[in-house]
Design brief:
By secondary structure, the chain is an alpha+beta fold. Helices cover about 45% and strands about 20% of the residues.
Amino acid sequence: MCRRRAPAHLQKLTEARLLSVWQQGRFRYYRIADDEVAGLIENLVNVAARTDHARCAQGVPTPLRQSRACYCHLAGQLGVALLDGLVRRELIALRGREGSLTQEGQGWCRVEAINFKPGREPHMRLCNDWTERVPHLAGPFANAILTRLVQTHALMPHRVPRALRLTPKGRAFFERLGVSIPF
């Protein structure tokens, strides 16, 4: 019964432009349509997460709490530490739940070879971390940082799905940022 309903639901979500779809052979692949829809989902998760933190974090594997991918940006304890370091060094400027890269931040991106060109505003926003119960950074700028960390093997996939393992290169990156690693 569920198999018959799923295609109809997916079709409705695609027509509403919440999902995008592409076909390869006889298979159809669905994904979140864009960053705006991902932000909407993050906000829904934030509203749903207004429950007891202990109950939410119960049974969450340690590697997932420490460092993980949240859509296309860094989350967990390491994602929260990244946000704190960027704010403390004034590399980003936050206004409410949105932010922008400062002049110092642009220089930092060049030094760290983070391929990010500020475009339309805002290029970053806060995303509530479901394990840490405080925000981490989301949006195109945060996506560019995670992309660079993965490309340089500063973060590697962990055997726990979505979890990321911090390597010595990653520790060096965070030390240069002045961030103390919480684990």
